[in-house]
Design goal:
The protein is of the alpha/beta class. It folds into two domains: 22-334, 4-Layer Sandwich (Purple Acid Phosphatase, chain A, domain 2), CATH 3.60.21.10; 352-544, 5'-nucleotidase,  domain 2 (Alpha-Beta Complex). It has 14 helices and 25 strands. Helix 2 (48-61) packs antiparallel against helix 9 (333-348) and helix 10 (381-395) packs across helix 14 (535-544). The longest helix has 16 residues, at 333-348. The protein is globular.
Length: 549
């Protein structure tokens, strides 16, 4: 028998032992999907079928896995809104294998009862064998909430933590605990009427400390590993100063950034984040938590790879990476079935006026770009189109004339995309302005209007107010000192402080959303008795009257 040198034998045996002494578990994640079912190459949206296809491919590479979401699963999607009774979101999540999600601000778009219901009722396509669990430890609920059950301050639609099990090949279970968090800025980024009785604490360290002292935390403590699943945003930021090499490293990008930066609890092995729509992969905080955030709209899948000691199941290391979702010409049967359902809904779903959402209704001469992050301190062409649609809707109401001073104002965050050159579908228009918010009209003075515009042009965090048809004049300190109104016939009027002005806005802005001061649009000055369409329909109705844009 051929002899193997002792040193080579020892090295080979050691390598073999090492290879067998660790186990890899992949925690796959998406975030800020926003109901982006329909593929749109102009907006770099791969579509739900491509996300399913990519996850299925990754699951073959990493058979030990779990798939989760970091929140904002819907909201910001006209397709989701238009197909609501037949929504494909439960089917999509089942196809992805997602049964656990953080709570984002858009989870409240349909109200707390719907969040509690989890598509169990009034939805025809929900798979019977699928369910979803929400985790968030920093939301509190009181008697003003429509879902308050009187037993605890924790809202019944979520759990602070959840332990999931992953079956290992040898029959053991790897227990992975998730602690959920939600941004405390939610009251500024969701309709006030949907948040009655809820409060959001931004002190992550305090929340975790308090939670860890409760009896229910024992299951988390006994788990093999713990992760934070949070709808609080991260982004890459430069590190390094003058004379040094500047590097981009993950940083918190959220109202709770200061508190989150001070979180350095070694019981957690990684963080999965969402909310800022950025692609992030690296480490964060002094303790160097691995952190992942997979962009938005299903454009990427995040992977947090946990290397475990095969004997103790202790986490030896955690690494993160992003995988781009690329649509394929040929889909697997599961993804192809989902794609067929999407195409059927495009052909059969109609607006309130009866137009199929897949129909083409106007043409864009030149692409109208829009990015609500990059352009948040601009007056955009899209903002002009949107606010002019508000004016168009108001002028069609009884009692208004062409000489009334009607101003449209909008928060830039409600606009979600641009329009590409060429024919435009109802769906494309709806995806620009997808929120089904009620519209309100207020009777104000010229001075009140000037205060609104001045306030809106100093909203550094959430973006500048969009408005039409006004030209502001500024003083030396950059504040608005005068406004000129432009009528449709080309004439102009410099507005006096006592001028009667009608301001059209959606209920989200009027209620203080995105940092707007609700005192600027007093309910006592709201015009009653109007039959205004809701936000998305206002925009669709307006663009249907334009042969070309």
């Amino acid at each position: 028998m051929k002899r193997i040198p002792l040193l080579i034998y020892i090295i080979g045996a050691a390598l073999s032992l090492t290879a067998q002494s660790t186990i890899n578990v992949a925690v796959m994640s998406i975030n800020d999907f926003h109901g982006s079912f329909v593929r749109d190459d102009f907006k770099h949206i791969p579509g739900a079928a491509a996300v399913v296809e990519t996850l299925d491919s990754l699951k073959k590479v990493y058979p030990l896995h779990i798939v989760v979401s970091a929140g904002d699963n819907f909201g910001g999607s006209y397709f989701y809104q238009a197909t609501r009774p037949h929504t494909l979101l439960p089917q999509f999540f089942k196809d992805c294998g997602i049964r656990l999600s953080a709570i984002g601000n858009h989870e409240f778009d349909e109200g707390q009862p719907a969040l509690l219901d989890r598509w169990h009722t009034n939805v025809s396509l929900r798979p019977a064998d699928w369910d979803l669990h929400y985790v968030s430890a920093n939301i509190r609920c009181d008697a003003a909430s429509p879902v308050f059950d009187g037993t605890t301050s924790r809202p019944p639609f979520c759990e602070p933590t959840r332990v999931e099990t992953i079956a290992l090949p040898d029959g053991r279970n790897f227990r992975l605990a998730f602690l959920g968090l939600t941004t405390s800025s939610t009251p500024l980024q969701a309709s006030k009427s949907k948040l009655k009785g809820l409060s959001f604490c931004g002190d992550a360290v305090g929340i975790i400390d308090s939670l860890s002292r409760t009896p229910g935390y024992e299951a988390v403590r006994q788990a093999d590993a713990r992760l934070i699943l949070t709808h609080q945003g991260t982004r890459f930021a430069p590190q390094g100063g003058f004379g040094t090499l500047t590097m981009l490293v993950p940083r918190w990008d959220d109202a709770d950034s200061l508190q989150l930066t001070s979180l350095n609890d070694p019981q957690f092995c990684a963080i999965i984040s969402g909310h800022s729509h950025q692609r992030v992969s690296g480490t964060i905080n002094e303790i160097n938590y691995p952190v992942i955030q997979a962009g938005k709209n299903g454009q990427h899948v995040g992977i947090t790879m946990l290397e475990l000691d095969s004997a103790s199941l202790q986490v030896l290391s955690a690494e993160t990476r992003l995988v781009e979702v690329t649509p394929k010409a040929l889909l697997s049967p599961k993804a192809a079935r989902l794609q067929a359902q999407i195409e059927e809904q495009l052909a059969t779903t109609r607006t309130r006026a009866g137009t199929p959402i897949g129909d083409y209704v106007t043409t864009v001469r030149e692409t109208i770009p829009f990015d609500r992050v990059e352009m948040r301190h601009d007056q955009t062409r899209m903002g002009q189109l949107v606010t002019r649609s508000f004016i168009h809707a108001a002028r069609r109401q009884k009692g208004f004339t062409d000489r009334d001073i009607i101003v449209g104002v909008s928060h830039i965050g409600c606009m979600r995309s641009g329009l590409s050159a060429g024919p435009v579908r109802v769906l494309d228009i709806g995806e620009v302005l997808p929120f089904d918010n009620a519209m309100k009209v207020f009777r104000l003075t010229g001075k009140q209007l000037r205060d609104i515009i001045d306030h809106g042009l100093h909203n550094e965090r959430y973006g500048y107010l969009q408005f039409a048809p006004l030209t502001p004049q500024f003083d030396k300190k950059g504040h608005v000192k005068a406004l000129t109104y432009h009528f449709d016939d080309g004439s102009q009027l410099k507005l006096s402080d006592t001028a009667v002005c009608y301001v059209v806005a959606d209920e989200f802005l009027a209620g203080g959303g995105d940092g707007f001061n609700p005192a600027h649009l007093p309910e006592s000055q709201m015009v009653d008795g109007l039959d205004m369409p809701h936000l998305t329909d206002v925009f669709i109705n307006y663009l249907k009257t334009q042969k070309e844009i």
